Amino acid sequence: MTFSPELLSEIRSRFAHVGTCPFTGPRVFFENAGGALTLNAVVETSALFAAIPDNQGRDNPAAKALQEVIDGARADVAEFFNAEGGKVLFGESGTELLFRLIRDACLGARPGPVLGSTLEHPASRSAAARWSAQAGREHVLIKHDDATGTVSAEAYAAKVTKDTAVATILHTSPVTGMGMDLAAITGAIRATAPDALIIVDGIQHACHGGIDLEAADVDGYVISPYKVFSRHGYGIAWASDRLTALAHDALIGAPEGQWELGTRDTGAYATFREVVAYFDWLGGEVSDETGRRARIEAAGRAIHDHEAALAQMMVHGVDNLAGLASLPGVHIVGGADNAAREGLVSFWKEGVPSPQIVTALNEAGIRTHTRKADHYSGNVLEPLGQADCIRVSMAHYNSADEVRAFLTAMQQIAA
């Protein structure tokens, strides 16, 4: 079910450049997996904090106010993640934080192998490969299912051993668009290796809602805020108490358990507070929930339902417009009907290079992206025998009319 026209209009009004590119004019933005649109409130908050000359940690009212923002942001992130205990840390980027958490886990965990999958983004897979080697650990990779674009709990259960020390999981693939059953996968790992340190790449998943670390039982979870309605320039992670207790980079004499290095940008903390406030607002629009966490969860469910409806239109058509599944020579990564899909459809067309289709869509005012069989996407495309594909990635502010515009353009391109 999609949002009502009235609510969708209100949602779209809260985002910058929702229907118009500042460089090219009107366009449909279906490149959300490369970086979602930014909340207007984030833009305003960024400007406000960029002008403040004071830093936290000083004995003056401005410094104390900045520290209150930072403390509030950490509490907001913990509520957004539904994480008890542990530490919320802000870093350079999501990739940088994945490297840090995976490195510390590989260097500090008990003896045993590192377990991951071939579906993972190179952010986590590269970190696990490097630091498992540095720590003298075997790096075991589970082969993902090419047909569905997923890796299952059963696949993890078949490979995990009692001595597995570290495990990495991709929550949602930015290439296939499929979400993994995180709680089931962590349950499968814990059933055999209860003490394994589990680190999750949640970067692609975050804007689609539904993060619940209490249910997932992980030790680390990382997101990139620019992919969840904030801006570039920082990443966010949560680390469990036992991961935090391991040795990690820190200044001599720094407070116990502190992860951040140097003075961070208070504006980064402040802008993510705007993201959490937005989920809170949306949850109040789509439900009667009174608690903030309950409203965040309601927003996640509504986002999922809206995006699923748009993806269904894109794949199977709407009104008299044929969907991608009906266009001759078009192949959809992960299959046309896949319940794991989260607002993203990747496809290729026989005999036509994907960049050519992306260019034609651009000329029609539709922003998409080419994924190539390179270090970012080769793990998915090479087993399929494909050099490239077109990624169409939606978010909850996209509309059925925008899907219609995309399908109209695709029918002309396919002809």
| CA-atom Rg in angstroms | 21 Å
**Structure summary, number of beta strands:** 15
Characterize the overall form. Answer: globular
Structural class: alpha/beta
CA-to-CA gap between the ends?
A: 31 Å
From the coordinates shown, what is the CATH architecture of the largest domain? 3-Layer(aba) Sandwich
Please outline the major beta sheet.
7 strands, mixed
Which CATH first-tier class of the largest domain would you pick? Alpha Beta
Full CATH superfamily name of the largest domain: Type I PLP-dependent aspartate aminotransferase-like (Major domain)
> How many domain modules?
2
Q: Which percent range describes the beta-strand content? A: 5-15%
**Poorly predicted tracts of residues:** none
Helical proportion?
40-55%
Mean pLDDT figure: 96
- Total of helices: 14
Instruction: Kindly report the CATH topology of the largest domain.
Output: Aspartate Aminotransferase, domain 2
Strands of the biggest beta sheet: in what spatial order? 4-10-9-8-7-5-6
Order of helices and strands: HEEEHHEHEHEHEHEHEEHHHEEHEEHEH
Question: How would you concisely characterize the structure shown here?
Answer:
The chain has 415 residues and is an alpha/beta fold. The protein is built from 14 helices and 15 strands.
Core attributes:
415 residues; Aspartate Aminotransferase, domain 1; Aspartate Aminotransferase, domain 2; 2 domains; seven-stranded mixed beta sheet; four-stranded antiparallel beta sheet
How would you describe what is shown here?
One of its GO terms (molecular function) is transaminase activity. Keywords: Aminotransferase, Pyridoxal phosphate, Transferase. InterPro entries: Aminotrans_V_dom, PyrdxlP-dep_Trfase, PyrdxlP-dep_Trfase_major, PyrdxlP-dep_Trfase_small. This is Aminotransferase class V-fold PLP-dependent enzyme. It comes from Ponticoccus litoralis. By secondary structure, the protein is α/β, with parallel strands linked by helices. It has two domains: 5-39 and 294-414, Alpha-Beta Complex (Aspartate Aminotransferase, domain 1), CATH 3.90.1150; 44-278, Aspartate Aminotransferase, domain 2 (3-Layer(aba) Sandwich), CATH 3.40.640. It is 41% helix and 14% strand. It contains 14 helices and 15 strands. It has helices at 5-12, 40-50, 61-81, 94-108, 122-134, 153-159, 182-192, 213-216, 241-244, 266-286, 292-316, 354-363, 378-381, 400-414, and strands at 20-21, 25-26, 28-29, 87-91, 114-117, 139-142, 166-170, 197-201, 220-223, 235-239, 330-332, 344-349, 366-367, 369-372, 388-393. The protein has a seven-stranded mixed β-sheet with strand order 4-10-9-8-7-5-6, sandwiched between helices. β7, α7 (182-192) and β8 (197-201) form a beta-alpha-beta unit. α3 crosses α10 (266-286). The mean pLDDT is 96.
